[in-house]
């Protein structure tokens, strides 16, 4: 179990600042008058001590405090262009940032939870003892900002005043990390004290790129100290490793929901978006998918885009509804395959003047234009990418093709620059009312494009059972892996504890208006459905149909076929929705997508069953669900054979 404030507070120990008087003396020696005036308005003693200890530990030449003033943001941007962390592109307010070639995704092998003795963590996470982490921080972070400026921002993970918003300090010597943070999180400097009071806590994040050389990346580390809700990150710049409010703090938020807010809150790796249904009604979705599996695209397909990566979810006791906020207010989105056809809302912001965009690790061509694989334009003759000069056909030393851009190249921009962003709803402290929860993965051969759980328990099981192919978002990841709730890389504690919290939340008697829970899969291939090859059976624009059908279903406006794993759509309903996007939808495609390949589904259940059996404290309920579903699937196979058509599924359901 998790205990807060247990063991040595590494930051306090290495910094050595024990009281407010010492903190003030240090501020006076390190901050100029303008910054002293700013810090003096902050009253929260814990926050002041954290900052003072970070200064004492990292020993920067200067400290710059970032308030809500756009002048402060402009100053940091100016510095970023001066130091070269960002460079201007052809379009106004568009810049390029490169991370080192070794630092192009989350450094999972160098990411650790700091644990106290006897503390158990997730079976798929890495841990380091408090003593070892303490020694590392002492050795590597003392004086790490010598010659650099420390930037301190007071941010919020969510709209001011929302029940599930959590304030956080972002302390870094990287201007790029700060300019990214400025787009992704709300600066709440003037109400930081009040937000901490409301929430009861805040998270602390300290990062330094240090010398920022390739040879230092092997010693880079990303630590999450769960007990002290503090993250440390060194010798890297990729935002997933350094913008610690994102996945670093998401992990603390998962802990908070799992151990301290049971049956009250969830913290999920989910997009949030709304769909407008018949009569103009709005139905909001929260959907999980592993990194690099289409969350951003899905979110922007909605009519009311709220967020593309994270969701803080809670039960509102007064209305009995499930509600959600986006802890972020910006997008750190993957660029590969983003083009006019699939992502029109995003594409316009990437190709036209009008909003601030930070591109990372793409190719910059001779016209100073950012280019990426799958952008839908003619391939340029040459350019510069994260590895240096590039031209088509360039090979690595061992003969592999070097792609034009890294598959995890990203763009960072404000949500409000996206045309279908519903700012009013996204900024509301009431959040949006979630009526549909989805879970998806990169699953080439097993699950249908869409299926709806028959109960809350079976919905939790859909989340628990996500399987997905590895993507470029994690350095060194390969193969097809279990990805429980698409949140597993960010679940610090035992998976059993998290699963239990999910069952309790969705079964809570406090929810009067239960959401529907569904599985989604965009990645079925021809080869897995009687055809040949890896060509997908669907395309990006189909997402609108899948969401559209769920919108109808959530409001009781779509019939469905009952199967052992859940409800699947009827052909006629989908056909109408495909008509709406002006796309042919032959019955033969429907049959391919929704026939059950029983052996695959059963193998999937067996895989999950076996794996969860090895984990600790897994609720028995999940095994019962797997057992019931498997038995019913095998009964179908007995009657109809290994491939069961939709007609047979319908007949069996009668
Ligand atoms: C992800 O990989 O899930 C992301 C980007 O959203 S980051 O976590 O910041 O690497
Ligand atoms: Mn993510």
CA-based gyration radius: 25 Å
Low-confidence stretches: none
Class by helix and strand content? Answer: alpha+beta
DSSP helical segment count: 21
Distance between the termini: 47 Å
Number of domains: 3
CATH topology label of the largest domain: Phosphoenolpyruvate Carboxykinase, domain 3
Q: What top-tier CATH class of the largest domain fits best?
A: Alpha Beta
Each distinct ligand: sulfopyruvate, manganese (II) ion
* Overall body shape: globular
CATH architectural arrangement of the largest domain: Alpha-Beta Complex
Largest sheet: 9 strands, mixed
Helix content: 25-40%
Strand residues, percent:
15-25%
Calculate the mean pLDDT score and round it: 97
Q: Tell how many strands the DSSP assignment holds.
A: 33
Describe the structure.
33% of the residues lie in helices and 22% in strands. It is α+β, with helices and mostly antiparallel strands. The protein folds into 3 domains: 10-85 and 105-260, Phosphoenolpyruvate Carboxykinase, domain 1 (3-Layer(aba) Sandwich), CATH 3.40.449.10; 265-330 and 423-653, Phosphoenolpyruvate Carboxykinase, domain 3; 332-416, Phosphoenolpyruvate Carboxykinase, domain 2. Strands 1, 4, 5, 6, 7, 8, 9, 10 and 11 form a 9-stranded mixed sheet that branches. It is globular, with a radius of gyration of 25 Å. The two termini are 47 Å apart. The structure holds sulfopyruvate and manganese (II) ion.
């Amino acid at each position: 179990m998790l205990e807060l404030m247990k063991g040595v507070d590494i930051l306090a120990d290495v910094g050595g600042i024990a009281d407010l008087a010492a903190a003030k003396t240090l501020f006076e020696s390190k901050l100029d008058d303008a910054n002293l005036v700013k810090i003096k308005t902050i009253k929260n003693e814990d926050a002041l001590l954290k900052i003072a200890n970070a200064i004492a530990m990292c020993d920067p030449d200067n400290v710059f405090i970032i308030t809500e003033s756009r002048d402060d943001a402009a100053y940091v941007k100016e510095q970023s262009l001066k130091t070269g962390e960002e460079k201007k592109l052809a379009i106004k307010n568009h810049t390029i940032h490169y991370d080192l070639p070794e630092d192009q995704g989350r450094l999972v092998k160098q990411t650790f939870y700091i644990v106290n003795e006897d503390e158990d963590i997730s079976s798929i996470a890495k841990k380091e003892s408090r003593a070892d982490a303490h020694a590392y921080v002492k050795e590597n972070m003392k004086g790490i900002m010598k010659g650099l400026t420390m930037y301190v921002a007071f941010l919020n993970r969510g709209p001011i005043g929302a029940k599930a918003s959590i304030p956080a300090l972002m302390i870094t010597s990287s201007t790029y990390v700060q300019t990214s943070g400025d787009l992704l999180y709300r600066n709440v400097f003037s109400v930081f004290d009040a937000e901490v009071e409301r929430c009861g806590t805040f998270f602390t994040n300290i990062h330094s790129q240090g010398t920022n050389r390739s040879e230092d990346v092997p010693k880079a580390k990303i630590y999450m100290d769960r007990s002290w809700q503090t993250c440390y990150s060194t010798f890297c710049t990729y935002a997933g490793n350094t913008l610690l409010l994102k996945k670093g703090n998401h992990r603390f938020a998962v802990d908070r929901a799992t151990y301290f807010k049971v049956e009250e809150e969830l913290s999920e790796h989910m997009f949030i978006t709304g769909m407008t249904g018949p009569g103009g009604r709005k139905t909001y979705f929260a959907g999980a998918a592993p990194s690099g599996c289409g969350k951003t695209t899905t979110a922007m397909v909605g009519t009311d885009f709220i967020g593309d990566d994270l969701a803080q979810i809670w039960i509102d006791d007064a209305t009995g509804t499930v509600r959600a906020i986006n802890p972020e207010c910006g997008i750190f989105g993957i660029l590969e395959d983003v083009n006019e056809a699939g992502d029109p809302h995003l594409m316009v912001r990437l190709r036209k003047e009008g909003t601030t965009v930070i591109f990372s690790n793409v190719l910059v061509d001779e016209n100073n234009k950012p280019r990426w694989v799958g952008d839908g334009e003619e391939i340029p003759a040459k350019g510069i990418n994260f590895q240096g000069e590039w031209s088509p056909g360039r090979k690595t030393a061992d003969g592999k093709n070097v792609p034009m851009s890294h598959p995890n190249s990203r763009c960072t921009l404000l949500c409000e620059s996206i045309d279908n962003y519903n700012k009013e709803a996204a900024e509301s402290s009431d959040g949006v009312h979630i009526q549909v929860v989805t879970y998806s993965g990169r699953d080439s051969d097993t699950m249908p494009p869409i299926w709806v759980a028959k109960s809350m328990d079976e919905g939790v099981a859909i989340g628990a059972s996500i399987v997905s192919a590895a993507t470029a978002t994690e350095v060194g990841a390969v193969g097809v892996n279990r990805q429980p709730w698409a949140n597993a890389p960010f679940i610090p504690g035992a998976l059993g504890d998290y699963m239990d919290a999910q069952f309790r939340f969705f079964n809570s008697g406090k929810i009067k208006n239960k959401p529907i829970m569904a599985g989604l899969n965009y990645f079925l291939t021809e080869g897995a459905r009687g055809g040949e090859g890896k060509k997908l059976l669907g395309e990006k624009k189909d997402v609108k149909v899948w969401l559209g059908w769920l919108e109808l279903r959530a409001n009781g406006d779509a019939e469905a076929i009952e199967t052992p794993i859940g409800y699947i759509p009827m052909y006629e309903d989908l056909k109408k929705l495909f008509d709406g996007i002006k796309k042919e939808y032959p019955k033969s495609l429907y049959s391919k997508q929704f026939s059950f390949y029983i052996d695959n589904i059963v193998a999937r259940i067996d895989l999950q069953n076996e794996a969860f059996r090895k984990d600790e404290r897994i609720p028995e309920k999940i095994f019962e669900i797997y057992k019931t579903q498997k038995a019913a699937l095998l009964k179908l196979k007995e009657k109809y054979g290994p491939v069961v058509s939709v007609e047979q599924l319908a007949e069996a359901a009668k």
